[in-house]
Amino acid sequence: MKKQTIEDYKITNLFDVSQTIAHELLDGCEYPWEVLPRISEYIIELGNSLSQDLYEKRGDSIWIAKSAKVAPTACLNGPLIVDEDAEIRHCAFVRGNAIVGKGAVVGNSTELKNVILFNGVQVPHYNYVGDSILGHKSHMGAGSITSNVKSDKTLVVLHGENIELETGLKKMGAILGDFVEVGCNSVLNPGTVIGKHTNVYPLSSVRGVIPANCIYKCKTEVVLKR
């Protein structure tokens, strides 16, 4: 497995930024956690510029694509943008500061807060996703969650192979690169970064930076895909 470098943490190596309506926000930053404090302001700015032919404004700072499906039992709070052909299912709870990408699925009893879901993301069953960014077509299995605050309430530091990066954030969940698969009932601890095309076994507790194109079996067993 190749040695990790600071390049592995950068937006350009984690995402195809063309696969989100928030591409301009991401283009303005080098590392993904820099985006998190800016999501709310960006949604309001972008929402006010969206086409009224394609998007409907509902309530305060909530824009829903007319092609999106939103269950009547879903609870939506702004600022929020739900992009085209997305689906918000029964009893989903969006607390605000959320961008739900094209064709994304937010499922039964899933909760979102201060997040960007790229196009095609699936968080379909009993997920909590807070202070996080999920890349194109990433998927979180049933019951998998992001933990976004350390138990001692100190600032989140990213830990990688011979690398430590201070985020300056008290709240940071997980950053999933494009096409990441997270197994059922896994916990992604504060400051987790998972590279593109990596799979996480069910029931995992994940911490730190996991390389791209790997299978995460446990902390001591992370193997390259063949």
Write a short abstract of this structure:
This protein is mostly beta strands and 226 residues long. Helix content is 8%, strand content 35%.
What do we call the CATH topology? UDP N-Acetylglucosamine Acyltransferase, domain 1
Query: Which band does the percent of strand residues land in?
Result: 35-45%
CATH superfamily: Hexapeptide repeat proteins
Secondary-structure-derived class: mainly beta
Helix content estimate? under 10%
Strand segment tally = 25
Number of domains: 1
Gap between N and C termini: 12 Å
User: H/E element string?
Assistant: HHHEEEEEEEEEEEEEEEEEEEEEEEEE
Low-confidence stretches: none
**Rg for CA atoms:** 16 Å
Specify the overall morphology: globular
Overall CATH class:
Mainly Beta
Q: Main beta sheet: strand number and arrangement?
A: 11 strands, mixed
What does this protein look like?
By secondary structure, the protein is mainly beta. The protein has a single domain (6-224), classed as UDP N-Acetylglucosamine Acyltransferase, domain 1 (3 Solenoid). Helices cover 8% and strands 35% of the residues. The protein has helices at 11-14, 23-27, 39-47; strands at residues 55-57, 62-65, 69-70, 75-76, 80-82, 87-88, 93-94, 98-100, 105-108, 111-117, 122-125, 128-134, 139-140, 145-146, 157-160, 163-166, 174-176, 181-182, 187-188, 192-194, 199-200, 205-206, 209-210, 214-218, 221-224. Strands 1, 2, 4, 5, 7, 8, 10, 12, 17, 20 and 23 form an eleven-stranded mixed sheet that branches. Strands 13-18-21-24-25 form a five-stranded mixed sheet, with no helix packed on it. The radius of gyration is 16 Å and the shape is globular. The protein starts with 10 loop residues before the first helix and ends with a strand.
